[in-house]
Amino acid sequence: MSLNNLNHQGLPKSIKIGIWASYVSAFMLIGIGIFWLIFPMAAEGSFSISADTDSAIRFAKILAIFKSICDILPPIFVILAIQNGQFKLAGQFHLVTLVLVILVDMWIWANFVPNSSLLDIIQHIPFAIPIAIAAYAFLKNSKKEVL
């Protein structure tokens, strides 16, 4: 199954919505993962804590690598599942991403980042919306045979 013929296979509308929501969330998560690699000093807390030692700067770079991996890997697995027609699996990947990437990140910002504001925490919601839409679209048809 290639990306070009997904819309031409007579898939249910909810699956098509899930596919496009998956692409939007993949674009967003891969984009933020690349952001962490380009700007490693933008890790949580660096907006209010200055990196005043060399070890703090190295730690921020290591953290940025882990953050980018955690942001980039889930959409890759989702895209692979979609390309293989495994829509229920893609929906499950979305649920795991929602919990382990988005909600955990919101919790970290709320509890461990000094001087974080409500805006810092809710900035994760735009990432969660396409993930939740895709998960719902894929999993609501999970009892039916899609292909």
Helix content: 55-70%
The gross shape turns out to be elongated
Enumerate the spans where pLDDT stays under 50 for 5 or more consecutive residues. Answer: none
Query: What summary fits the major beta sheet?
Result: none
The span between the termini is 12 Å
Structural class by sheet pairing and helices: mainly alpha
Q: Whole-number average pLDDT?
A: 83
Question: Taking Cα atoms only, what radius of gyration do you get, to the nearest Å?
Answer: 17 Å
The run of helices and strands is HHHHH
Beta fraction of the residues? under 5%
Count of discrete alpha- or pi-helical segments spanning 4 or more residues: 5
Could you give the count of β-strands?
0
Outline the structure in words.
The protein is built from 5 helices and no strands. The chain has helices at residues 13-38, 54-83, 87-112, 118-122, 125-139. The longest helix has 30 residues, at 54-83.
What's the topology here?
Blueprint: H1 13-38, H2 54-83, H3 87-112, H4 118-122, H5 125-139
Helix pairs in contact: 1-2, 1-5, 2-3, 3-5
Based on the model shown, name its key terms.
single chain, about 150 residues, mainly alpha
Offer a quick outline of the entry.
By secondary structure, this protein is mainly alpha-helical. It is 69% helix and 0% strand.
